Request: fold
Amino acid sequence: MDELTLLRNMRDDSREPSPTALAAGRAALLGRIADDATYATAQHRKQRRWMPRLTWAAAGVAAAMTGVLVVGNVTLSAQSAYASDVLRTAATQTIQYADLVAGSDQYLRSHTHARWGVCDATGCEPNDQIMDVYMPADPEAEWTLYRDWGNMPGVLTGESIETTRAVDGRFYDPGHSWVNVDYADIPLDGAAAYEWIDAQYNGGSASRDEDNFVRITDILRSGLVPAPQRAALLDALSRISGVTATDNVANLDGVTGIAIGRNEMLRAGERQEIIIDPDTGLVIGERAMSGTTLFGWGVNEEMSLTAIETTVVDTAP
Reply:
């Protein structure tokens, strides 16, 4: 005998419920069904009363988030539009500026006073450096670099103060000049200058926009770029996404100008800037601002600051 047959045989069919018991059981069952239906209806109504409130609350949060994003985008667009206007106005002014020109026995000197951080495992400390680059009237002649490394010995010389001479400003690498570009190669139209820079992108930096911004500002901060090429590069900067402008920013020596920069999200919002004289288009300094707490710097604190001045001098060290 299998288990199913055994179970069936154990059932007692001899005791059947009376009609009265069946009626009572049926009434109880119908009552419970009615109670359950009433409870379910009440819960449904309660949920329906709350649903609009929840829906409106969710809609309010979504609207607030959308509002923040829209305001942020509008603000950034307005800032970028202002920076574009500043840069293109400066480019126009630059064309009218009479560049300083070194005579046959003179030099165009770019003087940089820099405060950069020296970092180790314990953090970063500010270190002041001086760099004077002397470009002769003939750019293919011998240039001179005077450099005071401050508290950090020279990377190549091991000395705190060095004086180096090299043809075409190739102080540290025979294959690269100090400015690392032939000014004659820079297109004189802003859009063309941007395309010229962008075409050289090879995957460096945190983003393409950052790479373009850094390569343009590296050329400009030399302080030696002729006015026509300088104007074109300023116009090219206005075409880079995310570039904004800040008025009345002082360089390391206290001279004020307009800071042109951009925040790089892939570097936690770090901001790189050049400070320009809007009347001449000359770079008078650089600044880096932190985007987050790092190495002892707080959010939006100066990580580095420089002052740059271009003059004509009669002698070099």
